[in-house]
Amino acid sequence: MSLNMQVTPVGSPHRKKRLDFEEIPDAETPKPKRPRLSLASGFFPCLQSLAQSPSVVEQDSRILQIGPYILLEPREDGHSYTAVHRHTETEYSCKVYPARCYPETTAPYGRLPPHPNVAQVAEVIQGDQNVYIFFPPGRGDMHSHVRRCKRLPEGEAAALFRQMAGAVAHCHDHGVVLRDLKLRKFVFVDRARTKLVLENLEDSCLLSGPDDSLADKHGCPAYVGPEILSAKNSYSGKAADVWSLGVVLYTMLVGRYPFLDTEPAMLFSRIRRGVFSIPDGLSPKARCLVRCLLRKNPSERLTAQEILLHPWLASGAATSEDSCKTPSGERRLEQVVPDTWSQKDEEEEEEGLQS
């Protein structure tokens, strides 16, 4: 039976801000569209169709009922909501996407087997206009946690970063490139803030084989790799994810992004040069891992699986004086950047790079 009801839009989908690349001569690459992904067979036994249009609860236009769920206040990104199951009173996080994007949005979840550090889909409800994906609730994200703490002790950072790298390695092993990887993507699932999950696979890309070459330029400006800004044709999607992990780790340990500037063109120029500073207070092994991830040449970066074998993670936060060797000819890290996390950093987290 086909559904002809009208579904009240709960929120407009998040649109990432486009940044003009014309000021960067070596970044004028044609950007082919990603092929539309087909839905995996037998995917989502929890998929439901709405038996009726979303209804307004108690005359409050800010609260909508979607199937057995009540959508409460929207979050900052505009298409995420806190949701409560009407019968069990269990809290969930709900992501809302246009129905036309349903196959492409949900395909990565069908590809990935369960992993303790990747959030699992609890239920999907599809309407005529929107699709509603429900996840277990998070207890705050890493971006907010680092801003509140300024910087994390190495022991805490190592324990949390190990989980992040494990989630990314799991995705890469199953042909999923995350593309828009950043601190805000990871959320805590416990009150003690010791366990993290990758909140969603939004903006990820499915690979059809071992080749991870991508051509579109997509991501958050503060986390984008130099090869994405400079590539004439294609770049390694997995290596670009590893660069983003390097930015994540640096920010956790230092309390600021490794590359900062108020003007996008200058920010991209700094990233393309790949020169940054590491404070002396970090242990040699922590410094080593940061450098192994933020290498300008993508082929010299560790893979996500190799990150898990690094001594800093294998033995916890290292404090010994043993240092790791870096590639010959590596430039000294001398650039000084402000030791602050400004409002501009928050804006760069929110604004996307998509072309």
Automatic annotation (TrEMBL):
Residues 322-334 have a biased composition (Basic and acidic residues). The keyword Cytoplasm does not apply. Residues 1-36, 317-355 are annotated as: Disordered. GO terms for biological process: positive regulation of proteasomal ubiquitin-dependent protein catabolic process. Keywords: Protein kinase inhibitor. Belongs to the protein kinase superfamily. CAMK Ser/Thr protein kinase family. Tribbles subfamily. This is Tribbles pseudokinase 3. It comes from Pelusios castaneus (West African mud turtle).
